[in-house]
Amino acid sequence: xxxxxxxxxxxxxxxxxxxxxxxxxxxxxxxxxxxxxxxxxxxxxxxxxxxxxxxxxxxxxxxxxxxxxxxxxxxxxxxxxxxxxxxxxxxxxxxxxxxxxxxxxxxxxxxxxxxxxxxxxxxxxxxxxxxxxxxxxxxxxxxxxxxxx
Length: 149
Hints:
Layout: H1 2-11, H2 15-26, E1 45-49, E2 52-57, E3 60-66, E4 76-80, H3 86-92, E5 99-102, E6 105-107, E7 111-115, H4 121-133, H5 144-147
Antiparallel strand pairs: 1-2, 2-3, 3-4, 4-7, 5-6
């Protein structure tokens, strides 16, 4: 802990940011889009699962981060929301899209996708994280798993 305090003092890093960095590097595989940890609340819970990373906060699942070579069209941020909030979130973050599994076939899901191939991916991803940090009611779903964390 003393070393962490020295890092905080000399590098000007906040304790929350330092803890997020420690969590990031303690995972077996590097989490995709790990720069987003700088924009999410420090006390998020990250659960790795088969190439994806589930992000929980305040007893809700808020995001899934995915970066795999198989079915790469699903790579990016999966945003947990409700169907009722799709239009509003797409207005706020125009890069968000519905899931499309076959050519032109949209999947009726409560999740929205921010594709990592989108030209505005980084900016849109940061904006999503800021909405989460500000407790935007449109993002996050309570699940049995999230309640147990």
